[in-house]
Specification:
With 718 residues, the protein is mainly beta. The chain is built from 8 helices and 35 strands. The protein is 7% helix and 29% strand. β30 and β31 form a beta hairpin.
Length: 718
């Protein structure tokens, strides 16, 4: 078996292009504005937009709050969920919870099985789908609904997802099939019914709406990449089907009422033989594999490919070992990295991979408010150091009748079957342009960087297309959201340890040293949030500024704490970002490793202003001066800490009931620094949440969903 070499599969860095200084890129080559009029990507896709509820909803407009109405919570290192005075947080759904009436209760001791019928691990992005009293879809009902959520990954060490195995699992290759089967099942999605009796919320284990989507669930390939030679596998020789969804992170909700989910750090799950470059005769696939993080000879995260000769294991070997692509899984990795669409209400409807939205490390999908007679517009980020921000513009024009279609997935086909993908180029004067990624762009049609033969190639090798047109490398674009009143787009740039003074630019201006105890941290350590104002949602130009810089309150205000954050709202590594349709509050969630000596990860509430409400600032790096554009500094009444999570956790996932009186949050991987060797010694767990909060059996920490309500029954944040 191949030797396993540990690596951080959540810290990809595969962009080696020189797209660092946007003022140097392609100015003299071609104006993209004339290209915008072209047809763009063509195929059979569908995608995501907004309705009521969660992460990317844009039909709100009820944004009325001008200031926050709660007392900010203090930073915390306690192993518990901390919320403001007057609020209650309740655990309702955790790893292993049964999703059928016949599935045994979760023991939480590593002996549990049947994870295809249980909640998966690492709860992440989440959306609300309302149900009325009779069980019919409802955009207004507030006491009953479905939570559609991602199960991104798992807490692992030395290959094994050790908390779900009795003795921590196997840390060497080959992996036992029984262990791998569990791990294949805890990834993916879940759909679970929740309801309230007026006092408390609970999930319904026997609901007919409950279901799991795993790494083994069949999906249909839609969009420009359908039928491409680069998606041919032994499982689907005509490249119309594939299996599973993997490492799902952010989410979205379409205007036609479906759930969409982004596949993020999927590359590390695949093994490639050391001689695979030669076996592929060094064709363009080799360049593509390297650009997406898979060099020949690199081990996989879990060693699933080692568990036996059955097809469910072999598919994780991404090497060219057969006579052709029809005889092996050399293209299996190319079937991941998309936005997937599922009808939450229809348990039998197939999952679809929407290739028109491009292939990269997808976070959430945020959509401009749909306007009758105008295209659907979707915004996306690629979560890796030095990657890009994208926009998709549909060819079909929005018809409000499609807000409640008879066939929701068919409506998705209508809007994202044809469209155009763009990558963002940020300019040093506070403006920017969208660069077309299609064969209509002569820079790509005649590219010497990578051979693009079709728009299918653009959809599959999206990163290389963005490289070729000169998009701006960013500090890990993660979640994004569209402001329900202004229409401006907010992107979290969580951090970048590779950012240097030489590569600092206007939109990624900070490079500094931050101390965590005695440990020196360098680069853009604490991250920031960039804000875009499109001239029009489907237009080719935009203006930008930086809404807020993550920083410690005591950091230098001339170089680091440029937003003047205080003890009430300082933060590090903004990750999740969601706008509430009910209140207009922007909810900011952190996934931090830099400030965790002072506080666990957190969620803040924000009432941002508008792009351009601040002004220019200069940041010096030795002899180099960078001018950036910073929004109006927030105050504790417009940006405040609302929640702090348990030890070792990430705060992620957000959705609400349509009235804004119940908010659902995900607590991911509490206790993740626990050692595999200590799996049977609870006294050595970094966290025992949520068991010690009164939820469930055993003491092993579990990712879980909580619901937050105001004790007086009021609107959250008011």
């Amino acid at each position: 078996m191949p030797k396993h070499t540990p690596m951080n599969f959540n810290d990809e860095d595969s962009n080696t292009t020189s797209n660092t200084a946007f003022e140097q890129v392609l100015d003299s080559r071609l104006s993209r504005r004339s290209l915008f009029r072209g047809a763009g990507l063509v195929g059979v896709a569908a995608g995501a937009t907004a309705m009521t509820g969660c992460a990317t909803s844009m039909n709100g407009g009820g944004a009325t709050l001008s200031s926050l109405g709660f007392k900010p919570v203090a930073k915390s290192l306690a192993d518990k969920v901390v919320v403001p005075e007057g609020y209650t947080a309740q655990v309702i759904y955790a790893l292993g919870d049964p999703l059928t009436a016949t599935t045994p209760a979760f023991k939480n001791d590593g002996t549990d099985a049947a994870f295809e019928q249980r909640a998966g691990d690492h709860h992440d992005g989440m959306e609300w789908f309302g149900l009325d009293a009779s069980g019919q879809p409802s955009n207004a009902f507030t006491s009953r609904g479905l939570l559609a959520m991602n199960h991104e990954a798992t807490t692992d060490e030395k290959l094994a997802s050790f908390f779900i195995h009795a003795n921590g699992g196997t840390a060497t290759l080959p992996r036992p099939a029984a262990e791998v089967d569990k791990e294949l099942a805890i990834h993916g999605l879940s759909f679970v019914e929740v309801q309230t009796n007026g006092k408390q919320w609970a999930y319904k284990a026997a609901s007919p709406f409950n279901r799991r989507v795993t790494t083994m669930t069949t999906a249909a390939i839609h969009g420009p990449a359908r039928g491409s030679e680069h998606l041919v596998t032994k499982f689907s020789t005509d490249a119309t089907l594939c299996r599973g969804t993997l490492n799902n992170c952010g989410t979205g909700k379409t205007p036609w009422g479906t759930f969409v989910s982004g596949e993020e750090n999927w590359y590390g799950y695949f093994f490639r033989d050391a001689k695979d470059d030669d076996a592929r005769k060094k064709d363009k696939q080799v360049q593509g594999l390297k650009r997406y993080g898979r060099k020949a000879g690199e081990a996989s995260r879990h060693g699933w490919e080692s568990a036996g000769s059955d097809d469910r294991f072999v598919r994780w070997n991404n090497s060219a070992i057969g006579a052709s692509a029809k005889d092996d899984y050399r293209n299996e990795m190319n079937t991941f990295g998309y936005v997937v669409e599922v009808d939450a209400y229809d348990t039998k409807a197939p999952m679809r991979k929407r290739t028109g939205l491009g292939r990269f490390a997808h976070e959430s999908v945020a959509f401009a408010k749909p306007v009758s007679g105008q295209p659907i517009v979707a915004y996306m980020g690629d979560d890796a150091r030095g990657e890009y921000i994208y926009k998709f513009v549909s060819e079909a024009k929005w018809d409000p009748k499609d807000a409640q279609p008879a066939n929701r997935l068919a409506a998705g086909d209508k809007y994202l079957d044809k469209g155009t993908l763009f990558a963002a180029r940020f300019k040093g004067d506070g403006s920017g342009e969208w660069l077309e990624l299609s064969m209509n762009n002569p820079v790509l049609a005649g590219s010497s960087y990578f051979e693009f033969k079709s728009n299918a190639d653009m959809a599959i090798f999206t990163r290389l297309a963005a490289d070729a047109v000169g998009a701006t490398k960013m500090d890990r674009p993660e979640w994004n959201g569209v402001h329900p009143r202004t229409g401006e787009v907010y992107f979290t740039l969580t951090n970048n340890s590779n950012r240097t003074a030489a590569s600092a630019d206007a939109v990624n201006p900070r490079v500094y040293t931050d101390m965590k105890g005695s440990k020196e941290q360098k680069g853009n350590v604490n991250g920031h949030i960039v804000r875009l104002a499109d001239a029009s949602p489907a237009g080719s130009s935009f203006k930008w500024d930086i809404y807020v810089f993550g920083a410690e309150a005591g950091a230098d205000k001339s170089t680091v704490n440029l937003s003047n954050l205080t003890d009430d709202n300082d933060m590090s590594s903004p990750d999740g970002l969601v706008f509430s349709p009910a209140t207009g509050i922007c909810w900011i969630q952190t996934d931090d490793g830099a400030y965790t000596d002072k506080t666990n990860c957190m969620m803040l509430a924000a009432i941002p202003g508008k792009q351009g409400d601040g002004g220019p600032r200069t940041v010096k790096h030795g002899d180099k001066t960078v001018t950036t554009y910073v929004g109006k500094a927030p105050t504790p009444t417009t940006l405040a800490r609302f929640l702090v999570g348990p030890k070792g956790s990430e705060i992620t996932g957000w959705c609400e009931t349509p009235d804004g009186r119940a908010v659902f949050i995900n607590i991911q991987h509490p206790g993740e620094s626990t050692k595999m060797a200590d799996v049977n010694d609870p006294t050595k767990y970094e966290s025992q949440w949520p068991a010690h909060a009164g939820y469930g059996a055993g003491k092993r920490p579990r990712s879980a969903t909580i619901v937050i309500t105001k004790n007086d029954g009021g609107v959250i944040g008011s």
